[in-house]
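Exam revision sheet. Question 4 asks you to relate a sequence to its structure. Input first:
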Amino acid sequence: MVSVSGTADIVAQVLESSGTPPHSGTHVTFTTTLGRVEPTEAETDANGQALVKFIANGSSGTASIVAFLRSKRSGSASE
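Answer key, structure tokens:
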């Protein structure tokens, strides 16, 4: 849970179908239904993780945060 003026780190774990992380630098785009995500785009590291920050920005309610990879929906999480 994040307060209306709070922030939270968001980590997208990207894995290939074989279960291994992709090459570092794989492009991931994030969207949210409330507040904002900064930056809206990030690249994976050597472990296949892309890190962004969720900023509530005074919004109350349930935010859905979605990560997209190569223009396809790759995963989602709610906060």
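Marking note for examiners. The mean pLDDT is 88.
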